[in-house]
Amino acid sequence: MNTDEYLVRPKEKINLDKVPTSYQGKLTKDQVYRELIPENIKKMKDLQEKLYAENKQALLIVLQAMDAAGKDSLIKKIMTGLNPQGTHVASFKVPTYMDLDRDYLYRIHSMVPARGEIGIFNRSHYEDVIVTRVHNLVEEQPLPEKLISQDIWDRRFEEINNFEEYLSDNGISVVKFYLHISKDKQKERLMERLERPEKHWKFSKSDILERQHWYKYRQCYEDVLEKTSTKKCPWYVVPADRKWFSRYLVSTVILEKLEALDPKFPKLSKDEEDSLDKWKEILKSSR
């Protein structure tokens, strides 16, 4: 797979209406689930073990999407085979009053993965330039009036870019995925939540109400992709109408990012290596 086909290049103009939401290539669902995803997970597991042992680098995976695009199930399917000790998932809901009394990156920074970890953001700091923008929520936030101006979104894009570059410069690589679902497919999946009892728990009336703002969200995502996809911290637009393909594509990109980090098992010092035989003998003679 050539993952560069789905990469958003810095400052690239994006019209999501012209970007496919469904995969139409030669791969099959059976082939992906039987061979390709398991192979990716096996390689990811080996690299994660080295990343955890090395304890010098980290990988942050950001997932953004419209409702019902498959973020939760994607995390479950492709991260299941990894060691949970070195994997952390953070889901960001509506900010609390305590969150709103701080800068909008405060709660985000506190959930950044530690060295040696793979962190996954299920929604993220981008909610503050998407949902907040669609519903004009900045006017309800405790901000100085002089900061609530027409250029607030461009300022936040710059702040986010600086924040992510800061993470990258500190050994925390960032890769971002926008799961691109069609409005018809979203309607189908939301209907499943209403019709199938085992999926009722996933239903929220807000999912349906937010559909009224579909095109506002689309415009905000286009702006985000254009202004915050950078060489160090890129965005990938993932066709999400077929979950099996979106899972394969995301797992492939994650594998590529881990391979680029090239983590290594730590090496013992010469003194430690020279003392191994000594400790073997002590262990053998112990009860």
UniProtKB/TrEMBL annotation:
Domain of life: Bacteria
Parts forming coiled coils: none
InterPro entries in alphabetical order: P-loop_NTPase, Polyphosphate_phosphotransfera, PPK2-rel_1, PPK2-related
Sorted UniProt keywords: Kinase, Transferase
GO molecular function per UniProt: polyphosphate kinase activity
SUPFAM superfamilies: P-loop containing nucleoside triphosphate hydrolases
PANTHER family xrefs: POLYPHOSPHATE:AMP PHOSPHOTRANSFERASE, POLYPHOSPHATE:AMP PHOSPHOTRANSFERASE-RELATED
Family annotation (NCBIfam families): PPK2_rel_1
Identification of the protein by name: Polyphosphate:nucleotide phosphotransferase, PPK2 family
